[in-house]
Design brief:
By secondary structure, this protein is an alpha/beta fold. It has one domain: 2-enoyl-CoA Hydratase, Chain A, domain 1 (Alpha-Beta Complex). The protein contains seven helices and seven strands, in the order αβαββαββααβαβα. It has a four-stranded parallel β-sheet, with helices on both faces. A three-stranded mixed β-sheet has the order 3-5-6. The chain starts with a helix and ends with a helix. Pfam families: ECH_1 (PF00378). This is Peroxisomal bifunctional enzyme.
Length: 164
Amino acid sequence: SLAVLQALEDGLKKADADPSVKAVMICGENGKFSAGADIRGFSSPKRHGVALGPIVSLIESSEKPVVAAIEGVALGGGLEVALGCHYRIAHVKAWMGLPEVTIGLLPGAEGTQRLPRLIGVPAALDMITTGKHIPATEALKLGLVDEIVEENTIEAAIRLANKV
């Protein structure tokens, strides 16, 4: 939603400007990282404000380490947010993917560029062109996530953020 995008932008800018902040952790709420955009918004008139692509670029360009704590799902734009982060930790039961292709849309926040750089062209093409969801264990093998945990993902991400 626009409110989430605005909160991400505001929070990142505030963290980058605050010398007492050493790292940033991005998580979802209620056990889900992000299921991506609400496609009903695609048919509404163009709204002014923040867009996902520039927010993901802002995350990626942060001088402070940004860690994604992925629980539940990171799909579509949610996965693209995670791809912009410097590190990704996922709960063992998490799933990731770019399902928008199954309804005729291409990932629009540079996921098609970031994913191949991270996991290689063959695996990325498979995910991008099929909309396939992968479990955290496969994401770890591919290099999409840096670590998987069975415990509290947020606490693990905070530990990693403090370490780096």
